[in-house]
Amino acid sequence: MVKYILFPFLIYFTPLLAQKYSVFQIPDSLLKNANYIKRYESVSVKLISSSKARIVHKYVYTILNSRGAEYGSLAEYYDSFKSIESITGELYNAVGEKLESVKKKDIADVSWGDGFSLYTDVRYKEHDFGHREFPYTVSYEIESLSDGLLSLPFWMPQERGGVSVMESNLLVSYSDNNPVRYKLHAIDKPDSSISKNGETLLSWSARNIPAKIEEPFQPAWFSILPGVALAPTYITLQGYSGQKDTWKNFGLFFYQLLEGRDQLPPVIVKKVHELTDGLSSTEEKVQVLYRYLQSSTRYISVQLGIGGWQPFDANFVSTMQYGDCKALSNYMIALLKEAGVESNYVIIGAGESVYPLEEDFPRNQFNHVIVCVPNGKDSIWLECTNQYTSAGFNGSFTGNRKALLIKDDGGHVVNTTFYKSSDNKVFRNVDAVLDLNGKLKAVIKAKYSGQEQEDHFQLIHEYSEKDRLNYLNKLFRISSYNIDSHIFSEKKGRIPVIEETLEISADHYAIFNGTRLFITPNQFNQMGARFLSDAQRLYPIQYNYSYLHYDTISIRIPNGYKVESMAKDVNLTTKYGHYSICFSFSFDKIEVYREYERNRFIAPSEEWSVFSQFLDDIYRSDRAKIVLIKK
User: Fold this and answer.
1) Separation between Cα atoms, residue 98 and residue 92, nearest integer Å
2) What does the pLDDT read at residue 17?
3) So what's the pLDDT on residue 304?
4) What tens digit of pLDDT does each residue of 541-550 get?
5) Alpha carbon separation from 555 to 283, 433, 595 (Å, rounded)
6) Crossing angle of helices 465-472 and 454-461, rounded to 10°
7) Is residue 160 within 8 Å of 227, Cβ to Cβ?
8) Three-state SS at 489
9) What are phi and psi of 175, to 5 degrees?
10) Alpha carbon distance 260, 576 (integer Å)
11) Residue 510: is it exposed, middle or buried by C-beta count within 10 angstroms (0-12/13-18/19+)?
12) Which stretches within 339-416 are classed as H helix?
């Protein structure tokens, strides 16, 4: 009997299984939940000197569907410190037959466009076979040479959900006088460690790892999946040398890049004294000079050579009136220094899903620079790239994390502002009238503070009127409504506040059916999604952000109704947060009071059923209905 193996839209005979990279060589266990298969990967890192490393990355991926297609192409960056020595690649069909090889003319060489860099030497080599007959396999090998080492690869055999791994290998070689440091994450010691004639060769491997499914509220993949972080011990970068074995030494290296770059021209020195000589407190001087920085400069990135790490000097910024995060921060420090205020250059991993600084393993994991002004126990943090943000406000971009503060005695690991639920608040008051057709007209006054005002901050300063209205028309859970007017006001501070007044109209907020009125009174702030409590949980539950919401809703209805069915009051208190909602009806008025505090926490996977039940209870209570009947 002839045996057949079925793959979507394809049927092949068993003898074809011998073909190289045939999909039929992939075990069923690795096909489950996968969008692509890492058939083979090898990352080879050879440290040549304190400034040079040769890295060879070979990978073979089988792309199973359109969701995996983005991983079937090549994009490799290079710049002044990294050259690409060679690129090879092949394309194979489902049964492993070679269809095509990479041709040099088909490799695009494009400039990196980030939308805000005026000049950059970062470029990309890009290639895509353009093949979309699934499944198919691509193989690429890239050899690169780094000249100026601040970073080495972080090897993760499985970087994300939706990918299975048949084989992935890491090879690291270095001399005894120029060692590579490494830290293991959920992985064992090297499979092999060989030292001979002053050279060391380390290797790790991973095989047959099934695809993972992303779970709601899980930690970032890099914190739960196996990996090996690498870092050099010594650094040489365009004439600057240092060590990276401690955060203190890493800071000393960066301090070299800053020395002598804080000299201001006489006209700016005079301006600083005009602005600050009459001020007595550090806080006042910081506020005045920060406003001056914001009004007289703008953020433009210039990433050329060592300029990707070293700031332009203060004289350049004052003359050109622009700079990137490094240059503007250095300029701000120079302004404060002239006013007699101590401040420090701080390098940080900014944004969401950045790898947190590990105090026991110094390595370069930074993408941004801010300023810290010591002020007793209440340091003032300054984001120097935004012309509108408040002095002292880190927000979600740089808050709630560790950073490296640079001083003349080296690097110091510090904590930026930690925001509590009492900092991140929303107070909302809805005063509404419902007519006999179910149409609601409402005046909504809200006050957003801390991280909760960040979306509205962008709404005010970055959105067009069209985009602003589009955002506001999706703000509530009402099926359809119009924004009749909107007004915003902003109060700056370490915990900034934005106040919003909206007038809206909604045609079908409630339903009149004969003598009955059916209404869901809270359509302004509802839990947005439900989560299955009985699903098996694999990963911890993590919520990195705490907030507190207060909502008061008052809806005046046509007179002559009484309660037939009243929504139930609910009060829930757990380690994950507190929720309460109360409903009342009297004198032709429905009133709702809702309070929800979400805590920042990490919990084991075993608590998923309890946590998801907490969320589900909120979801249902937010949508509770009231039925009124004509008297």
Assistant:
1) 4
2) 39
3) 61
4) 999 999 999 9
5) 45, 5, 18
6) 150
7) no
8) strand
9) -90, 160
10) 50
11) buried
12) 395-398
Selection from 380, 385, 418 nearest residue 401 by Cα: 418
Look at residue 535 in the predicted model and tell me its pLDDT.
72
* 64-104 per-position pLDDT tens digit: 999 999 999 999 999 888 999 999 999 999 999 999 999 99
Radius of gyration of the chain (CA): 29
Rounded to whole angstroms, the Cα distance separating 229 from 186 reads 11
- pLDDT for position 183: 97
What is the per-residue pLDDT for 238? 86
Phi, psi of 169, deg, nearest 5: -130, 145
Overall size of the chain counted in residues: 631
Structure tokens at 290: 């920060």
Amino acid type, 224: I
In eight-state DSSP terms, residue 171 is E
Q: Which residues, 6 or more positions from 94, have their beta carbon under 8 angstroms from its beta carbon?
A: 7, 10, 12, 22, 23, 133, 135, 136
Query: Counting runs of H as helices and runs of E as strands, what totals does the chain give?
Result: 11, 41
Amino acid 9: pLDDT? 37
Q: Which residues pair with 101 in a beta bridge?
A: 90
Section 512-527 average pLDDT: 96
CA-based nearest residue to 571, from 585, 560, 581 = 581
pLDDT tens digits along 179-236: 999 999 999 899 999 999 999 999 999 999 999 999 999 999 999 999 999 999 999 9
Helix, strand and coil in the chain, % to nearest 5: 20, 40, 40
Q: Is 464 exposed, middle or buried (0-12, 13-18, 19+ CB in 10 A)?
A: exposed
The answer to whether the CB of 138 falls within 8 A of the CB of 91 is yes
